[in-house]
Design a protein that fits this description.
It is built from 4 helices and 5 strands, in the order H-E-E-E-H-E-E-H-H. The protein has 138 residues and is α+β, with helices and mostly antiparallel strands. It has one domain (10-117): OB fold (Dihydrolipoamide Acetyltransferase, E2P), CATH 2.40.50. The chain has a 5-stranded antiparallel β-sheet with strand order 3-2-1-4-5. Helix 1 runs antiparallel to helix 3 (103-120). The longest helix has 32 residues, at 6-37. The radius of gyration is 24 Å and the shape is elongated. The chain starts with 5 loop residues before the first helix and ends in an 11-residue tail after the last helix.
Length: 138
């Protein structure tokens, strides 16, 4: 006997996906505004390029504070110590990131919206057999 059928879990899945879409819409609009207004060049003070995924970074100095900006290894190699790098500063959450034309934000928003659409469609009604609907028609 199954205690957690899809029909019981479906509202929670839809709720989770709605929250995901709202979260991603918020950050999409926030980051689009930031990329238009806050892209500034900074001098790289240190470069730490590693071969493992996600562990490369460059450091910059901004308002007397050192910030780490994580990036891919190939991207990190482009910015040796003393070079200029264009970054976006998020003053609300106090971090820097490389402008990417909202590629990541657009993909996340599309992905969560697509999953929400798949979760909302009543698949059981679309693919149920019609043998029960023909019983009294003869």
């Amino acid at each position: 006997m199954s205690y957690l059928s899809y029909s019981k879990v479906r509202p929670f899945i839809i709720g989770f996906l709605v929250l995901g879409v709202i979260y991603n819409v918020y950050f999409f609009f926030q980051n689009s505004r930031l990329e238009k207004e806050n892209t500034v060049s900074h001098v790289v003070i240190e470069q730490y390029c590693r071969y493992s995924k996600g562990s490369s970074l460059v450091q910059i100095n901004y308002n007397g504070k050192v910030y780490d900006v994580r990036m891919a290894n190939q991207e990190c190699l482009k910015y040796p110590k003393g070079s200029m790098i264009y970054l976006v500063y998020n003053d609300r959450y106090d971090y820097f990131y490389q402008p990417d034309g909202l590629r990541k934000d657009s993909f996340r928003l599309f992905f969560f919206s697509f999953l929400l659409l798949l979760a909302i469609i009543p698949w059981n009604r679309l693919f149920r057999s019609d043998s029960t609907s023909c019983e009294g028609n003869f």
